[in-house]
């Protein structure tokens, strides 16, 4: 009689495993460094608005390995989704292609978030400053530049920050739904299975709704959509090139 003595980590595909480990290590390091007063990795490596002095192009990459230290749920659900879907997709795509896909979705999410900030920073500024109802954005900026506010424009720009692997994870969910569209999925609050394609379409519509309505502030909903957009572009390109065929799971 033979026994399978494979450990939990050894059962995870290599790139997925290393992504999980890196994210957890970075989350723990962020907590430790904050407590000893060494450095704020969230501020240093998180994605800032490009107008701020704290922005660095490398943040388009590094932000996806940093998670909010105030919320265990943030890293838990991202890593749970990466573990749940990542290994299967990595075995379908191959490790190198999966890593390329994951990083590309994260970069796509970052670029979309920068575009959203570029479009919405004025309305965000108006919501943070109290003044006459007739005050325009230029009036507010002039007041800030004249020292009539508690912060400078650069401090405001630097306050626009996002972190987390959610954009890349949403890209993974999108890939799973495209490769295994009819795979049944079970959600915590729905007692019946739902096909993967409908689950992901529902997620996408919810993210669009929350992003437009602003009913769930503090979450980068458009970045999530950016990860999905990058994912669908890449997978459609691969499928049209014939590098991922029906035999690999496409339907």
3D structure, described in words:
This protein is mostly helical and 251 residues long. The protein has one domain: Rhomboid-like (Rhomboid-like fold, Up-down Bundle), CATH 1.20.1540.10. The protein is 62% helix and 3% strand. It has ten helices and four strands. The strands form two sheets. It has a two-stranded antiparallel ribbon with strand order 1-2. It has a two-stranded antiparallel sheet with strand order 3-4. Strand 3 (184-185) and strand 4 form a beta hairpin. Helix 1 runs antiparallel to helix 4 and helix 8 (166-179) packs antiparallel against helix 9 (196-213). It starts with 13 loop residues before the first helix and ends in a 10-residue tail after the last helix.
Q: What is the strand and helix layout of this fold?
A:
Blueprint: H1 14-35, H2 41-45, E1 47-48, H3 59-62, H4 72-93, H5 95-128, H6 137-145, H7 153-159, E2 161-162, H8 166-179, E3 184-185, E4 194-195, H9 196-213, H10 221-241
Antiparallel strand pairs: 1-2, 3-4
Helix pairs in contact: 1-4, 4-5, 4-8, 5-8, 5-10, 8-9, 8-10, 9-10
Structural class: mainly alpha
Low-pLDDT residue spans: 246-251
Shape: globular
Number of domains: 1
- Spatial strand arrangement across the major sheet: 1-2
Order of helices and strands: HHEHHHHHEHEEHH
